[in-house]
Amino acid sequence: MDQTSEMIREQAEKVLMHTYNRYPLVLDHGEGVFLFDIDGKKYLDFCAGIAVFALGYGNKAYNEALKNQIDCLLHTSNYYYNVPAVSAAKKLAAASKMDRVFFTNSGTEAIEGAIKLARKYYYKKYHRADSEIIAMEHSFHGRSMGALAVTGTKKYREAFEPLIGGTVFAQYNHLEDIEAKITERTCAIILETIQGEGGIYPADKQFLNGVAKLCKEKDILLILDEIQCGMGRTGTMFAYEQYGIIPDIMTSAKALGCGVPVGAFAAVQKVASAFEPGDHGTTYGGNPFATTAVNAVFDLFLKQDVLENVKHTGTYLYDVLEQIKQNNSCVKQHRGLGLMQGLEFDTSVSSIITKALKKGLILISAGTNVIRFLPPLVISKSDIDQMAEMLEECL
Ligand SMILES: *Cc1c(COP(=O)(O)O)cnc(C)c1O
Predict the structure, then answer these.
(1) What phi-psi label fits residue 381: left (phi over 0), alpha (psi between -120 and 50 degrees) or beta?
(2) What is the spatial distance between Cα 231 and Cα 51, in angstroms, rounded to a whole number?
(3) What is the C-alpha separation between 226 and 233, in angstroms, rounded?
(4) Rounded to whole angstroms, how far apart are CA atoms 307 and 329?
(5) 29 φ, ψ to 5°?
(6) 265 and 311 co-located in one domain
(7) Are residues 149 and 256 in the same domain?
(8) How far is the CA of 108 from the centre of ligand 1 (A)?
(9) Distance CA 346, CA 41 (A)
(10) How does pLDDT run across 52-90, given as a tens digit for each residue?
(11) Edge to edge, what strands does the sheet with 186-192 contain?
């Protein structure tokens, strides 16, 4: 007999560490913008595995590329060269306007690498190991000790302290606060171009341009975390393009591999050259399988005109959510760019999300009061209409 959903959930709760309160869904397969559970129930997916599955599920060309690479070569280590890593790095460097790329296995590791690179740059310049990093309140950069140290949510950090030292927090979208916290030891300022987990807060134009200017004046490195908001999510390959700035270091992950675990940090030459052989490493990072996924993602973004779709459907989603806000007094605010938007409610959104799941709509929260809308980037206007209809029924 096939295992029921309940049996699987019961086993999962015994054998997996209880670090998540999971929704009672056992997912089986996907098709386009839809997911199916093991009982065959269909869900419209507005989560995309947390902004990962940009190309939608079951993309033939993407799957073929990966299958071919499995039969060719999965892994080499970084002691040797491999072709997919070189072409993926060229594509990411060109898209991000960076010069050099280091591939990792996750977003968190990309942040770790970015922090190490910033510290090394400072160390090489001043011959001192006392650098500080300014990070933002309500930011999210990952769960390892370094990434947690720059994550601005106390409840994630508190039990695990002491984390790495030398981090200072400032208010997001508050230039004066950052300015006040800069010292001669500041090596970098790290922020998400659009805060994701923190509740979908885009950086103000003036703020981010001001930060970039401060960084330039004082030779402080600007690290932009584009792990969630990058890879086309806002209608440009990276969100900072819309601000007319280029960071010194940027991080990517999530949709970079569209399901294959891969991240990267990239830097301009002046900064990247601070790293020398032996300074950083990884066994899996940038292996031919993961970087084949990256190549396929970049190629298919072009071929399927994904950015163009995000521009149209992002505007459409904005109008639709604006309408929902007007119709429902429980919606307090609406924020976001492209296909990264959020509705803030006056109370916890968990019951709305549970109701939506029952109806066949997958939504996720950001914090307690915000619903995040992060659909696959190949979503259509009629999918958005369908989402809106189901969501309205839940409010
Ligand atoms: C998800 C996320 C991370 C962490 O990435 P993982 O792949 O989960 O390690 C870091 N920064 C931002 C902005 C994220 O959204």
Answers:
(1) alpha
(2) 9
(3) 10
(4) 33
(5) -155, 170
(6) no
(7) yes
(8) 6
(9) 31
(10) 999 999 999 999 999 999 999 999 999 999 999 999 999
(11) 100-104, 263-267, 249-252, 221-225, 186-192, 132-136, 167-170
CA–centroid distance, residue 35 to ligand 1 (Å): 22
Ligand 1 centroid distance, CA of 143 (Å): 8
321 & 227 share domain: no
Question: Atom 11, ligand 1: which residue's CA is nearest?
Answer: 141
Residue 1 has pLDDT above 70, yes or no: no
Q: What is the CATH number of the domain that holds 253?
A: 3.40.640.10
Domain that holds residue 153: 62-303
**Total of domains in the chain:** 2
Euclidean distance between CA atoms 178 and 204, whole angstroms:
14
Beta bridge mates, 222? 189
CA of 251 to the centre of ligand 1 (A): 9
CA of 44 to the centre of ligand 1 (A): 23
Question: Pocket of ligand 1, candidates 136, 145, 228, 284: which has the most ligand atoms within 8 Å of its Cβ, to mutate?
Answer: 228
Which atom of ligand 1 is nearest to 109's Cα?
9
Residue nearest atom 5 of ligand 1, based on CA coordinates: 107
Q: What is the CATH classification number for the domain harbouring 378?
A: 3.90.1150.10
216-268: pLDDT as tens digits = 999 999 999 999 999 999 999 999 999 999 999 999 999 999 999 999 999 99
Task: Tell which of 303, 320, 349 closes a domain.
Answer: 303
Q: Give me ligand 1 centre to Cα 227, in Å.
A: 6
Nearest atom in ligand 1 to the alpha carbon of residue 142 is 4
Any residues with Cβ below 6 Å from ligand 1, and which? 106-108, 111, 140-142, 192, 196, 225, 227-228, 253-254, 263
